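This part of the workshop introduces the protein records we will be handling. The structure tokens are whole numbers drawn from a learned vocabulary of backbone shapes. The record below serves as our worked example for the rest of this section.

===
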Amino acid sequence: MFDVWYTPIGAEDRRELRADIRAQVDLAKSELERRGCAAADYRLAGEDDDLGRICSKHLLRDWRMLVAFPEPDEVCILVIGRHRRGPRSVYRRLYLLLEIGDPTDERDKPPCCGKDDEPPLDRELVDRLIGAAKRQRRRRSAGGTES
């Protein structure tokens, strides 16, 4: 059994979802609790090494849940949103948190679990993303226009 938890931004994303999408998130969370990285669909890829330690879980239609693994038995739900063009894309929001541009490399979608069936661990990455989300939220509430 895996401990699955939300970042503050992931929890906020879940609260704002329609009921049908929220139900899909809850099902995906249950699957992650049972199977860990094996429940995620693929690792992200790009020039930035951090992307290779984040996995995507498909929900309904173009909805995605992005997850990371701070410890072998933990799954952190980072961001939930739609995979579409524009600033509100779930991937664009992640790139803003990581302070990177959109990847230009070919995306090969490797499996989330490594060859040893272990997740791509990185507690520091999860902590950095949580800190970045808090800073972004403070800037918005102080009158900034970031989204």
Summary: The chain has four helices and five strands.
